[in-house]
Amino acid sequence: MEILAKILVGFVALEHLYILYLEMFAWETKGKEAFKGSLAPELFKPTKTLAANQGLYNGFLAAGLIWTFFIDDYHWAFHIAIFFLTCIIVAGVYGAVTTANRKIFFIQALPAIIALVFLHIR
Predict the structure, then answer these.
(1) H or E stretch covering 22
(2) Which domain, by its residues, includes 89?
(3) I need a labelling partner for 108 at 20 to 30 A (CA). Which of 51, 74, 83, 118 fits?
């Protein structure tokens, strides 16, 4: 079960690295496709800097989860993973509640919730 939890944590980290890429480097191309319906097409260019800032934060979340793979002490790694997964869950729930596009819950929060559950099942 521990290996499955690590795989799920790794998946969430990769997902947030991809969000970093979309928001920092591909906002006006692939980002426009991924976030259609959330933002009017003409707003992607003027919000490029804001999106890049959000992407950077997603990178920090991914880095925190990746960091857990390099911590030798199981309990320390466990608690760091809990912290970063909880941050992702809160951001995903907040995004789903405050935006017109509710699918952010299923894309961002739900995978983190699943990883968190499996992290607790040892």
Answers:
(1) helix 2-25
(2) 2-120
(3) 74
Number of domains, the chain: 1
Q: Is the pTM of this model over 0.90?
A: yes
Task: Tally Cβ neighbours within 10 Å of residue 91.
Answer: 19
Amino acid of residue 64? G
CA–CA distance, 72 with 74 (Å, rounded to integer): 6
Q: Which residues contact 20 (CB under 8 A, 6 or more apart)?
A: 55, 56, 58, 59, 62
- What DSSP string runs through 36-87? BTTB-GGGTTTTHHHHHHHHHHHHHHHHHHHHGGG--SHHHHHHHHHHHHHH
| CB neighbours of residue 33 within 10 Å | 9
